[in-house]
Amino acid sequence: MAKELPYFRFTPQEWQNGDISLESYAMKGLFVDVCSYYWVQDCVVTKKMLVKKFRNARKNLQELIELGILKHDDSTDEVVILYLNKQYDLLSKSRIDKQEAGRIGG
């Protein structure tokens, strides 16, 4: 998906009013970096992947998880960013619908 749509929606109002708005600039910067990495990975990452990728920010990464800004499932190690998953699901459905329409038209 990241190659087909190399960007995700960013809503300034949600950014300014969301839980992340109360955090330090370092935490906000890490969150944006994590969001970008998450999107490029088609919204499938584990905590292990994030710890390796952002090894110089392990403490802040753990804090984002503890604050619930990043959702972490201990049993699967999967990390989820809900608002990006919603976008990904909508875009994936749209892409599948267009592919099916193309097959019917072709």
Q: Any overview of this molecule?
A:
The chain has 106 residues and is mainly alpha-helical. Strands 1-3-2 form a three-stranded antiparallel beta sheet. The model has no long low-confidence stretch (mean pLDDT 89). It has five helices and three strands; from the N terminus they run H-H-E-H-H-E-E-H.
Tell me the Rg in angstroms.
Answer: 16 Å
Percent helix range: 55-70%
For the terminal residues, how far apart are their CA atoms? Answer: 23 Å
Q: What is the count of β-strands?
A: 3
Structural class: mainly alpha
Strand content: 5-15%
> Uncertain spans, ≥5 residues at pLDDT below 50?
none
Strand line-up across the major sheet: 1-3-2
Average pLDDT rating: 89
User: Tell me about the biggest sheet?
Assistant: 3 strands, antiparallel
Backbone shape: globular
Order of helices and strands: HHEHHEEH
Number of helices: 5
Throw out a few tags for this protein.
5 helices; 106 residues; globular; 3-stranded antiparallel sheet; mainly alpha; 3 strands
Topology, please?
Blueprint: H1 12-17, H2 25-40, E1 45-46, H3 47-53, H4 58-66, E2 71-72, E3 78-80, H5 82-105
Antiparallel strand pairs: 1-3, 2-3
